[in-house]
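Hey, quick one: can you model this chain's 3D structure?
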Amino acid sequence: MVLYFLNFKYVFEINVPLKQISYYKIGGKAKYFFEAKDVDGLIKAVLKARKIKAPIFVLAGGTNVLISEEGFNGLIIKNSIRQPGDFGAGMLMADLVDYAVDKNFSGLEWAGGLPGTLGGAIRGNAGAFGKEIKDIIDEVVSLDIFSKNPKIIRRKIKDCGFEYRSSIFKKKKGVEIILEASLKLIKDDKKEIEARTKQNINYRLRNHPMEYPSLGSTFKNVPLTLINADNKLIYADIKKGKIPIKNDPFPVVPVAYLISEAGLKGISCGGAMISPKHPNFIVNVLNATADDVKNLIQLAKKEVKKKFGVEIFEEIEYLN
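Sure thing. Here's the predicted structure for all 320 residues.
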């Protein structure tokens, strides 16, 4: 069943199971669902949601959002805008990486094998191998959906508020929807670009549990600047080089190491499991529920705090 509007050109679908859309294969139903493939449709969907007083949540690739079994009693907008010109926010990162390789553009090799969309990557300032999406952003175009009349906003990189796994768009919590971005890529030798990209793809295949649905890294790594001499459980061992440090893109203690040392590799709850392959991934091995995942998240936070005196914070988001 669908809800028709605007001369049948655009429709809201009703009671859509979000587990079919979520990368995690977890979640209840959306009361209304709309896939936006152009800005015109997106604006009309926003205005229609306002008219029927439905709350709005924007879903990109669904690779970083844990959706509850209760679903969402409002409108889920899936951003699939891929217009020509600048890069559309709905463009899959895999397609963007392929495009860069094909056109001899360097700057995206770190994203080889990264799931999700460009819009989601910008919103969370995605990164890997010491690089972040902010490193190649020139300008981001977004739609302010809470102004009286939805308006287009253009921001140069200095105004995007990029921080570690965050941006102004994430902090605004759905006030703006990313539409497109201009990227700063540089020409390089195609074979070298391709080799670096494949190296990162192969690393992910070897070290990440790609065989199961997940949301990628569950927790943010712990910046070294947050650990000082007051934390006697870990500070001395860091100074002695007993605890690994990596650049992400600044010095951090890998959360995967902390979770592993807390003895949680392979621990399961219901159908969810802390991956023994990479313990910062909580994988859906057997029809897991959102509560299964939440229980493991709370367990990891509790045990890491008890063993190391360090608080860890989610990189994923919740849709309750």
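One thing worth noting: Residues 290-308 form the longest helix (19 residues).
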